[in-house]
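Run log, item B.
One chain of 272 residues. Sequence copied directly from the ordering sheet:
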Amino acid sequence: MKANRILFVAQEIVPFTVSNETSERCRHLPQDVQEMGHETRTFMPKWGDINERRNQLHEVIRLSGMNIIISDTDHPLIIKVASLQMARMQIYFIENDDYFSHLRISEPDLLQPGFADNDERAIFFSRGVLETVKKLRWTPDVIHIHGWIGALIGLYVKVLYKDEPTFRNSKIVLSLYDAPFAEPFRDDLLSRITTRNMDAFDAGDIKEPFTYTTFMKLALRFADGLIIETENPDAEVVDYARQLGLPVLEYPQENYAAACNDFYELVAANAE
């Protein structure tokens, strides 16, 4: 299988959020890969510090309007889009008042104690991205996930959407950064992940407490490759990827976009 269509799932992207290594990489990698001849789509949360007027966001009515149920509670999904004209790219935003609109990604509070609903935030975002891609009728060959916010996408692709034609052949690449949480997720994370009509999934040796390390290891069980994006990655997570036999792209990458492009092809070829 060739990696022709790449879906990028980002936690933050400049110029919509503050400039840092993650947001800069997530801004330029999709453009660089697109210029290599691939089709791309890019998603991120619509955080509260994103200025809609300045960035010219507008709602996509045909993609909005559904609810995502988490723990028997309905949460409305709103999709907005903005264009990066010079890059000839569109960025899709997942919006929800409960999980994103009141939070500022530019402030460090999100990873500090007190944000016990980060588990539901990741669940909502991951499912929101996949439901929207389904509506777009666009079938990604590789889904490249940057950051913890989309880490559950691989699990949902391979369990909840395993019979969905849109994702039947999609391979999951997970980028590992160094932004751990200050406190664990709630102990009932696995039950929160499960939805109606979803088969049981094999969490293996992953169990509470659900720390950042445990959460990323769970994500790796449903991934097809790992990219190390930091000089000081979580060694336990990297070791776990190797135990699972996943291909790993080491840090640093001399030509980041070209290295990622080659890695997508490797992951696609290994999965055949």
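Observations after the first pass:
- DSSP finds nine helices and ten strands in the chain.
- The beta strands are 5-9, 39-45, 58-59, 66-70, 73-84, 89-95, 142-146, 171-176, 225-228, 248-249.
Flagged for discussion on Thursday.
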